[in-house]
Amino acid sequence: MAHGRFAWLWPIALGLSLPALAGAPKASGDLAQDSFDAGLHDALIAMDKASPGPLDAASVAKLKVLIHDDTWPSAARIGRDGVDAAGRLVERAGIDPAFQETMEHAMRSHIGVDVDAHGYAALCDRIDVSHGQPQEYGTLLALKNGKVVTSPFVTTASATESRDSIGLSFMDARLAEAQTALKAGQSLDDINRMPPLSMAPQWPSEPALRQELRDMFKADQEVRRSFVASGMKQGSPQQKAVIDIDAKHIERVRTILDQYGFPSPAMVGRNGSAYMLLLADHIENDDALMGRVLELSRPLVDKSQLSHALYATVVDRHLVLQHKPQIYGTQATLKDGHSVPLPMVDPTHLEARRAAMGMEPEADYLKENDEAYQADSTQSKH
């Protein structure tokens, strides 16, 4: 069976990992309808002001009580200053990296709603670096021989794919912008200065659809994980569960397109739009419907409201299902435990096409694909 990382389980690179969905944070409902919680707001503000340094174990435990297994608190619930205070507290909770990661996932669903993408990326990079890990989004810059560079270093390809997933400019464009600003007289401190975590709220206009898409994607991934854990046996109950849920979801995708067109971030949030495209990736035996999805979603990609890499992946899958060569090298089959790309057009210029869509080199992609599959297979044995 031809499949790849993207055909089954969707990784953190797109910001839609299973841990993020099945881990502690609950789904966000109609954020605009959240009631202001003065008690929670005041507790977060007071805790943030109490001490500017790293939180001790007792303080982290208190913070986890305040924002433990709930959705990341919205600006409607705790105010913009409360969101910013909560972000600073999470950053200072380095004694509990797992909690920090959980909160990063929870914040992410708010990007473009009441969490600023630049502020979020900078927060995540600072947390990563504090743990001795490379930054992910390339927000931390330095000067080297008069040239603006990422510091700590992160490859342009890696940072670009992460940045694109949350709607930020490609890394090379960001570096060029910073270099221009430096020549114009801006200081490096000014260039590195990022907006706060919070932003003026832009509440999704279709909160019920946003929630539905999130629930559909979670169910989609759960049955696929179960299928992988079962050894992907043909004719198994787990395979039937995948087939059944795909049939159900595909009809719902068709209805959504008829009623709304392709849901934009303004309607369902950035993650909601991505969920819609991810669900459409599992359309089979309906070239017209998949083509319609790609046509309607392309304007969002062009405006960086939807991941270029995600779109490229669905384009490839559409082509492969029509028995045509793929364009971006995202579709692969497993051979002796390793991913082998399916036929593609003009392999000589593959890397240029991938770079234009903000994608990492093919070799890195295939390596991560193998590691992800092996991790899923290992986990299923425990």
How is this structure best described in words?
With 382 residues, the protein is mainly alpha-helical. Among the domains are: 5-11 and 204-380, no CATH class; 133-202, no CATH class. It has helices at residues 5-8, 18-22, 38-50, 57-66, 75-91, 97-108, 117-130, 156-165, 171-183, 188-192, 207-229, 237-260, 265-280, 287-302, 308-321, 350-356, 362-380, and strands at residues 141-144, 147-150, 332-335, 338-341. The protein has a two-stranded antiparallel ribbon with strand order 1-2. A hairpin with a 2-residue loop joins strand 1 and strand 2 (147-150). Helix 11 runs antiparallel to helix 12 and helix 11 (207-229) packs parallel to helix 13. Mean pLDDT is 88; it is low at 1-28.
